[in-house]
Amino acid sequence: MKKIIYIALAVLFSSCLRLDSFLYNADDSLTEYKLDAYEGEVEIEVGPAYDVDDSLIHLMTLQSDPSGENKTIWAVYVGRIANIATDTIILYCHGNKDHLDFYWSRVKLLANTGSKNRYGIMAMDYRGFGVSEGPSSEEGLYADVDACMAWLKQMGLSDDRLIIYGYSMGSAPATELTANVRTMQPSKLMLEAPFASEEVFVEDASGLSLPGSYFTNLEINNGDEIKKVEEPFFWIHGVNDDYIQMKTHGETVFGNYQGSYSEAHRIEGAVHNDVPVVMGYPEYLDAVHKFILRP
Length: 295
Fold this sequence. Notes:
CATH class: Alpha Beta
Number of helices: 10
Shape: globular
CATH superfamily: Alpha/Beta hydrolase fold, catalytic domain
Oligomer: single chain
Number of domains: 1
CATH topology: Rossmann fold
Low-confidence stretches: 1-19, 206-216
Number of strands: 10
Radius of gyration: 18 Å
Strand content: 15-25%
Structural class: alpha/beta
Mean pLDDT: 88
């Protein structure tokens, strides 16, 4: 094992590879979104019981403009747009791989929280992912999710009805925009398999206490930002996650939370991408729903 690590580090040092590009493992080969008709690899399979009516699926483009770099991003809203002014909405921030079609099954699963279409669900492809324009960047992540918040606010959503859910890399914009308010203040924060910081990534990968700045310019640090979050916090993580390790990443984020209420769901036997599968879809949705209903 040590030999493999040393070889990997030698390649890293000699080729000047950085974690910046590793974090954004985007697929921009799409020319259009297929959603249910997509025939490629998907994150999880949910089956027809979790389908949503076509009339409730709204693909759209939004303008996202961090630091004057205006880009068009793609998003999907599942629900009745006319009801955004009264509904509770889950804003879903996906992981670092592929695009919306890959995560569409997760969006549909969340659309069955409580009962089918009880809550509105919004998800987006960050810049550089899917058909969204522009190169991926840390500031772009935040701006693209905030662009969705701006649209929801325009449609009548208020802070008290906004839940933000970040999965894997999506934990960064979810935590950042809860800790440091821009357009809206989410009322609750949900993180699945969050990472703590680039420093922990480096230490996990190398086994050495090397500064994260050697490998990356990223300043994402969920472990620190979570300390600013006062809103109720839901954390769920696979115990056997070997990509974003629960003990070094998830436990750090959960342990640093100092807000009003928190709950942890450590899922035995689950790895990085199969927490809902291993937990069981009804059990997963029940846990999500009970958290949303908490005062």
